[in-house]
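Re: beginner question about structure tokens

> Can someone show what the tokenized structure looks like for a real chain? I only ever see the sequence side.

Sure, here's an example I had lying around. Input first:
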Amino acid sequence: MLVVLLVLGSVATALAQRRGGFGGFGGRRGREVIRPNTPYDGRFMFVRIRYGPDYGYASQGLPWSHDYPAGEQHFMKILNELSLLNPHTEETNIVTFDDPELFKYPVAYLCEPGGWVMSDQEALGLRTYLQKGGFMIVDDFRMQHWGNFESQILRVLPEARFYDLDIGNPIFHSFFEIKTLDVPQYYDPPPAIFRAIYEDNDPSKRIMVMINYNTDISEYWEWSDTGLKPIDESNEAYNLGVNYIIYGMTR
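And the corresponding structure tokens:
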């Protein structure tokens, strides 16, 4: 925890200074032009999934793009300080589930699945990705969104079962020792719920889909350079994120 506090404090201060402190975050709720994808070079890349039309920009009106690009940029800086993955820290690649480029990346991030809808080709692409060893993190959705998420993921894995995770699960100990799942909430009423889909529905095998339900850990990543929330709360979100990546890269 002390390492994360020190790293987060220095990174957040530098970012805040570069962005101009509180005066620099207003644009995050406006439109953000989507940057071109970086060609694959073997380094770890944060991969965000787009669903729906490609409008060429991110905004609050496009739920899949929430927290882009600040959330993943901040997160990758933390990951870079704590691991040997040598991730891209400024670039984010955005792909769809039917894009062959997805198979170059072992971890994918899906945001706000409350409005997530796939084509049949996308559903097939995601199923193939997961069965070939891909790991998907799902984040940022509320209680009322579970029905849509469940209906979509069951198109991908019709046989899937959802397992509620407790603090003893190995994913919460893959790097940091997570002490409690009673995590701080940015704006959701507690409790946060952590669920998983296992390979072959077998909890002794790897998690294919890690589900952060009724919570939004990437919101902490995005705003961690502003002082809007206590550092220790942002640290908890980073701890979870780091554990997920390390788990996904070692299973």
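Each token stands for a local structural state, so reading them left to right follows the chain. The radius of gyration is 17 Å.
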